[in-house]
Specification:
By secondary structure, this protein is α+β, with helices and mostly antiparallel strands. It has 4 helices and 11 strands, in the order αβββββββββββααα. 25% of the residues lie in helices and 33% in strands.
Amino acid sequence: MKTQLSSKLFLLLLTLGPLFSFAQNRVQDLDLRPLLFKNFVKADILKKDGSDIQASVDYNTNNQSIIFLKDDVYMELTGLEEIQEIKIDKSIFIPINGKFYEKTDMNNLFISYLNKVVVNDGVTSKSGTEVKNATESSNNVSNVYVSRNYQSANNLAFVKKFWVMKENQMIEVNNINKVARAFNVNKNKVSEFVKKEKLDLSNYDDVIILLNYVTKIAEAG
């Protein structure tokens, strides 16, 4: 019986070992408000060596990191150079330059999530995203304020930022000049196109329209 328990314990440590080797950063007094998902979500962490580890995680919009619980202690996932991707329900996050970005249907387009403090004054027209449920797809998140009620008068609005990867560099799509430079197209043409089409570069569909446009111009020479 003792031998059997020892074997089970060994197998458990063998299974958890790879995950715990990443958990080098203990997060003291974690503020839960900046976490993207309402609850910690069961995720598959796929390593570059092909191994797959499961853990309950959340996305910290303060620094675009992944947080998980170990022995009731909040830990930040490290060792990112060994991670291929993290599957959180319908979303896939990948590490790029020490931060996690969500993949989209476009191969070179990614999303990061940040937050901003919003004074609770009843105004709801500014851009932001709701805290995500585990079953929500990133492209369907409504542009509204976080719906949770806090004791503080200040709430957090989650903000999506879109990034296009061009020649191994991450270019913020909202920066028209950088996008034009990255695709080697005339920045005035790009700016005029955005104004003419009334594109909202915090909206996924509009971002796709812009990237298709600059790609077409670049290919035409």
